[in-house]
Amino acid sequence: MHKGFTLSFLLLMATAAQGGGPLDTGRQRVAELGRLNGIALACRYFDQTRRIKRLLIDNLPKSRELGQLFDDRTNESFLRFVNSGESCPSPASFGNEVSQAAGRLRAAFAEGAGR
Predict the structure, then answer these.
(1) Around Cβ 35, how many Cβ atoms within 10 Å?
(2) What is the DSSP string of 55-77?
(3) Sign of the torsion angle spanned by Cα atoms 34, 39, 42, 47
């Protein structure tokens, strides 16, 4: 019986690590801001990179996992955007996209949700 409990616990932890746990929505929102941060860096929208980092500092629990997720998505997004040859969005439309993502992040982490 002890082995069954251990196996169940390990399966539960593996599922949570793959994004099936309670942080799923929060992780998605952090990844979304990482994607936007990569584009902001590529387009040299440094005011938006500062804004995004402030959003994370003000709204996320202090977690190495979430910080690493943000950094990884930022790097992936930056490289993908630069290699795609896409042109940068207008500063106004990009700012609106960041504002919408900010609202979703706040909702995901409001009152302990997503923590």
Answers:
(1) 19
(2) HHHHHS---HHHHHHHHHHHHHH
(3) negative
pTM of the shown model: 0.75
Taking every pair of Cα atoms in the chain, the longest distance, rounded to a whole number of angstroms, is 60
Q: Which two tokens stand for residue 9?
A: 């616990």
Dist. CA 32–CA 77, nearest whole Å: 10
pLDDT tens-digit profile of 69-97? 999 999 999 999 999 999 999 999 999 99
Name, in order, each residue with C-beta under 8 angstroms of 109's C-beta and a sequence gap of 6 or more.
26, 29, 59, 60, 61, 115
Tokens standing for residue 15: 């599922």
Which residue blocks in 1-115 are alpha helix, DSSP H? Answer: 2-15, 24-42, 46-59, 64-84, 91-109
